[in-house]
Design brief:
alpha+beta, Jelly Rolls, 2 domains, five-stranded antiparallel sheet, four-stranded antiparallel sheet, 7 helices, globular
C-alpha cells in the first residue's frame, strides 16, 4: 500500500483488511476494484461475497459500530481509496444540516434495532409493519432528502446509499 495525500493505493492482490480483525476505517473506492470474501466452514474455503468498484464504500461497519471486520477486502486491480475514520466521519457529518445528521442517526439506530426482514418473520408479529418501519420507509423515500443528499460529500452520499440498502432489507414488503 502506498499513501498519497489522503488517498491510499493498493496493488492487485494486496489485502486491504482481513476478516476478524478490528477495523477503524471505512473506504470509498475512487478507482479500481475490490473483492470481498469470507472464510467458509473449513480453513481453505473462501466465499466470494462481492466485487465492487468506484464510488462504493466498504468496511463502513467498522466506523459505525466498531465491530471486527466481517470479511476480507482484497484489491483486484490497482485501486485508489479514500480512507475515513470515525473522527473524519463526524467532521463530515458536522458539515451537513441538522436534518440530515438526524436522518443518519435514525437510520443507524433503526438498522441496529431491527433484524433483516427474513429474520423478523421468524418471530411472533415480526412480519407486521411497525410505526418505526413506516417512519423509516417515508424518510428514505422523501424527495426532499434526495435533493439535499445530492449536495453532500461523496463519502456521505455513498454511506447514505448503503444505510438505505440496509434499512430496506429490514422493512416488510408494502401491503
Amino acid at each position: 500500500m502506498k499513501k498519497v495525500l489522503d488517498r491510499e493505493v493498493y496493488y492487485a492482490g494486496e489485502k486491504i483488511f482481513r476478516e476478524g480483525r478490528q477495523g477503524y476505517v471505512a473506504y470509498l473506492i475512487e478507482s479500481g476494484e475490490v473483492t470481498l470474501t469470507k472464510e467458509g466452514d473449513t480453513s481453505d474455503e473462501i466465499i466470494d461475497i462481492a466485487t465492487i468498484g468506484p464510488n462504493t464504500i466498504f468496511g463502513e461497519m467498522a466506523v459505525i459500530d466498531e465491530a471486527p471486520r466481517m470479511a476480507t477486502a482484497t484489491a483486484t486491480t490497482e485501486t485508489v481509496v479514500v480512507a475515513v475514520d470515525q473522527r473524519e466521519l463526524e467532521k463530515k457529518l458536522e458539515t451537513v444540516d441538522d436534518d440530515i445528521r438526524a436522518l443518519f442517526r435514525f437510520l443507524l439506530s433503526f438498522i441496529r434495532a431491527n433484524l433483516p426482514y427474513e429474520e423478523r418473520m421468524k418471530t411472533f408479529d415480526g412480519a407486521r409493519e411497525t410505526e418505526q418501519d413506516k417512519v423509516a420507509r417515508d424518510m428514505i423515500a422523501s424527495p426532499d432528502v434526495a435533493e439535499t443528499l445530492g449536495r453532500i460529500d461523496a463519502f456521505l452520499k455513498a454511506l447514505f446509499d448503503i444505510l438505505v440498502t440496509y434499512t430496506e432489507r429490514r422493512l416488510p414488503p408494502r401491503a
